Sequence to fold (395 residues):
Amino acid sequence: WKDILEKEHNPNGINPFLARDRSLSRKTLLFIDHYVPMFDKDAGSRTVFAYIKLFAKAGYNVKFIGDNFFKHEPYTEILQQMGVEVLYGSYYATHWKDWLSENGQSFDYVFLNRPHISIKYIDILREKTRAKIFYYGHDLHFLRCAREYEISKDPKLLEDIENWKKKELYLMEKADMAAYPSEVEVEEIHKTAPGINAMAIPAYIYDSVDPVSYNTAERRDLFFIGGYTHGPNVDAVLWFTNEILPRVLKALPNIRIHIAGSNMPQEIINLASDHVVIEGMLSDEQLEDMYHHVRLNVVPLRYGAGIKGKIVESMRYGLPVVTTDCGAEGIIGSEDILKIGNTAEEIADQIISVYNDEDELKRISEAGKRYILTQYSEQNAYLAMSQFFDLPLME
Fold:
């Protein structure tokens, strides 16, 4: 090992943080999020997990801090098997600042996620590291709250809008680059603060689409999936069942909607009926089976911001989608890929008109898959990241 030790290793005791995992020649990247990405439970976690995989595959030395410092399994071990060092446990929960002080100069980049988490870390990262900071907001919170206010007129939201705007703009100004899933959000940022460096990146990364062809004879019913800690998803389900579904049933009396997702509140569970099937949390295998057997995905979002993971994933599986302009935000050419309505009557009419139109359903199914292959490939994500990160050329 003499030649290896002389050529590839520092002298004894010099920078052991990088030497211990043979990372002296690799870029070191610290990811920070609220917890280890539970990629089968919510869209944001799918995004974070996909980008961790991308950087690990590119040869980066990746570290991960989950703000709760809990060893969620099997997710923590999955990251570790990819070569990612995950900080967890009571020691790091109370000594993470010491860890940054000791090792911060070894970081080349930091990938921060979500404003409510990032605000805790941004200043100390600037103080303790030399890293370039990439801040990914997931969605533009002050824009989402403003859209909710347009619907509810709840005066409490006016304070939320200003609080989020102050916090998010502070993070963007402190970071070297801010990123969001859609150009719509980037444009909104530049309207508010023209000098901020901001870019749109693919929120989801897929290396393939579902090979199963769409066959109406094997499909029936409607589908909705969401994480219910996210207010727009709760609102969408309640709006659909109260105002849209009764209209649909007049024309399609045997139709049902299957409602799935994590952290389902009692007010959603209580909707169960002959026409509302509460599926609850689905495994990836169960979700794939659902995508193969329902006829339409209905995403009646009245407010929100950014590209919606439930729509992108549905397109990947070739499942046609009926949604709103809010749901279609950021989907280029959405009018040819999605069925769009913005009132209860319009959405009901879209469902009724397309539900038994086999040719149109098959056309939309294939169009969605083509869109995923062109917009959400690993190559697209890699090229987007290369605008900020030092990445080797893809093989």
